[in-house]
Design goal:
4 helices; DUF8021 domain-containing protein; six-stranded mixed beta sheet; globular; signal; DUF8021; about 290 residues; Nuclear Transport Factor 2, Chain: A; alpha+beta; 2 domains
Amino acid sequence: MTRPSLGTYPCLCLALTLALTPLANAAPAAATGCDRAALLAAADKYVEAQTAGSLDPLQDILSANFSYVENNAATDVSSGVLSHALAIDHRRSTADTTDCATYTELISTGGKAPGTGAGAAKPYVIGTQLRHDPTTLSIVLIDSVASTTGSWSFDAAKTLSHVLSEDWPAIPADRQDDRAVLRRAADAYLDIWSNATAADAVPWGTPCARLEGSAYTGRGRADDSCKAGLPTNHNQAPNTRRRYVIDEEAGSCDVLCVWEHMMMAADSHEFRLEGGKLRYVHTITVCPGQTCRL
């Protein structure tokens, strides 16, 4: 099937709604359910597209009027990170079969993308949610937080080394946490900045490691905790416009949001729970056009 060239895709109302209004906080009206294998296959195609710096690998599964959001702003995909060929050093994808979405974590330390003829690119750490039409499974939204040199605590090589030291195996069905448990844990954590009692609702576990950009709290000890460095001032601006991808099999809840107290930054927080307890937190934070400061 022939589609328009890269630069002709419009950024339509769905992207503007998700990126620019609080409506993104609302849960879907009804759960429809999507095939896990199909969702993850689409995520694979997205990774191919990012490697190529081209939408071609996605052509057969893109909605004709799909929307592209980068760092919380509706963006022309031809000027976004997806138009740059990246050598991918790490990728991990999760699938939300209830809300027909995926989340993919990508790390590129800046090497030359294979088979593209392109030179070495800037390094990136990217978190991307894909949203699918529940009937056709076509992609209706690509929603990314793309960090690079100058972003909060950015060092792609260091981030990669920490990620590769972690273990995120699939969780057996009889040990999986309910999606409501995963979302409550994520929301409680993200509420800490604006709610003095929110930390009490977080299911803290040990060991737990937080990867904040390239800064890592894990020391390889049994008492490692994700509480380290969290704010004591709970009167800060809230973290808003939350968009969720929840995967019970992965024990994961990813949240894209606006990190209001840090210069309205674009942010991804992914949480991994095991046995109902917080085990890992991965964050990606970008202040577009600015140097992030607290």
